[in-house]
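Notes taken during the Thursday session

The instructor put the following on the board and asked us to keep it in front of us for the whole hour. The protein is Helix-turn-helix domain-containing protein. We were told not to look anything up and to reason only from what is written here. First, the residues (260 in total):
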Amino acid sequence: MKRTADLPHHPPPVVGFADCYTGGFVDAFHVHDRAQLSLFLAGSVTINTQDESFVLGPGQGMWLPANTLHQATCRTDLAFQVVYVDSSLIGPDLLPSKMFEASSLIRGLVDEIIAMTFQFTMDERMSAIARLLVDEVRRGRRIAERLLFPSDHRLRRVCEAIIAQPGDGHDIDYWAREAGMARRTFTRLFQQEMGMGFAAWRRRVRVVEAASRIAAGQSIAKVAFDLGYDNAGSFSTMFHRTFGVAPSSLRFSSIPAPLP
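Then, after some discussion, the predicted structure tokens were revealed:
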């Protein structure tokens, strides 16, 4: 196992390693001078950037452009692979932050890069592998929906707290007080910044969280209870309304994209 600190001072244009973290570990906000591709093999993680939040589980990948400020919070024990890609291998077309399903080809290319450790010559073959990997990430189907953060720091503080504890049952008056606002000001500003009401946004947080947990193998009943639903039936109704599929459909598939 290797960590970022163990990388050589002058690594090849593409370099990767495998690692694992224990549940509860928080990799505080930081940046890399290269693009970062992470593939998650086991466990669940929340990745926050300055403007967005992503919840990822096994079989999913996350691409972050170079110099993207980000934080990772391990919701469970986590096993993953990470590859750092120099901008010279990406090309002129921008590849923004993206959460996607990791195909068998992407997994194989990442395995090949990691197997080379850090002691290899960036020959024609390795250059072709790296460019094909970037192309496959670019083509990969985006999954789920990122959760946007508001620009107002008071609202962001509330949103971060809810994402950290999506089953929290406090009402809107409580969160308005936490933000230091009157309820009317809070609801108006939230709608203005997020394009939806507070209750709708919190429901979306819960179903995205639920999708990740169910895909990872948790029972629907337990997920519904943990996220504050009175029963599995009401939870399933809300889930279907958001994703257009029943929660049971996630047992052996990826997190779907929420309906517009």
